[in-house]
Amino acid sequence: MGEPFPMVEAALRGVLEELGSVALVVNDPPWSGLAGSLPRPASVTQAWNMDIAHLESVAAGEPEGDFVVGLGGGTAMDTAKFLAWKSGRPLVQVPSITSVDAGFTDAVGVRVDGNVRYVGKVRPERVILDVDLVRSAPPHLNRAGIGDILSCAVGLHDWRLAAAGGIGQPWSEPLALLGARLLDDLSSMRGEIAAVSPDGVRFLAGSYRAIGAACAAAGHSRFEEGSEHFWAYAYEWLTGAHPVHGEIISFAVVVMSCIQGNDPGRWRDLVADCAVRAHPDDIGISREDFDRTFSELKSYVRRQELDHSIIDEVDLDRGAVDDAWEFVCAIPRRGEKS
Ligand SMILES: [Zn+2]
């Protein structure tokens, strides 16, 4: 296993004071609500667009500051990574929500023609966990953080299938054990996550840190990324929609574990008990787009050269898709974004 990124619990304000000259990369929210009470950064870049051409133009503008600091969710973390990687400046990540693992991975992800590509690697000097800041975000965004942990359930199953057929990355028992342990821990933390308690937030951040280190050491992310991510990528490519990452991944874990015949009731219960918004009506997935995604899925994963998974092994026929839809529709509706 690789060395996890250094993570410290600290308040954002003190961190910015200590660093001094900062090229801050933000999402808004939370930026507008915080700016008045924080030391003024050398520059502020709004992150919103992960398209490679946009990121190159941001980097070409050479935002001022000795440190690149990412503050926000996935796009802020990823844009900060891109900027630090391009300019060789030290990176500090301050996730303001626990909805995605981007702050804890070294891969620099961008979009090329609407598809995710990894263009390089960068290791943050440290990740700051400001528990109060994180807990001030809308609770549903923090609960969504289970998505990139829950994805181990489907990812491990896909990887085992591929490795058994001698395809792709060889099986690694330590990685499999890490994934299984995180899933067990997630089960026992379900109440804390539903409540978005400080320990729930610490658990999510700590899990991402462990996953990020394991992926960096292995050089791939097979144990935590499988056909559930591929389904979500295909859906986003087809529809142009970008639901909250952890919410669509939670949805897709329930769907693909059903296709896999991989204890889907366990994962659906876990999503329900963590109070994650993953019902299709809550995240805007129509039956029509669900069906369209499945009909495109096999050709999509081949075209994108995604890893071998259940998608390559079974018939995604009418009956299987109908069953998966019916199964996923039993996730409780959460309605209001709270
Ligand atoms: Zn993910």
Overview of the structural elements:
With 338 residues, the chain is an alpha/beta fold. Helices cover 53% and strands 12% of the residues. It has 16 helices and eight strands. Helix 12 (245-260) packs across helix 16. The chain is globular. The mean pLDDT is 95. Zinc ion binds at residues 148, 229, 245, 249.
List the helices and strands and how they pair.
Blueprint: E1 7-9, H1 12-19, E2 22-26, H2 31-35, E3 43-46, H3 52-60, E4 67-72, H4 74-87, E5 91-95, E6 107-112, E7 115-121, E8 126-129, H5 131-135, H6 139-143, H7 147-164, H8 173-188, H9 190-195, H10 198-218, H11 227-239, H12 245-260, H13 264-273, H14 280-283, H15 287-303, H16 318-328
Parallel strand pairs: 1-8, 2-3, 2-4, 4-5, 5-8
Antiparallel strand pairs: 6-7
This protein binds zinc ion (ZN).
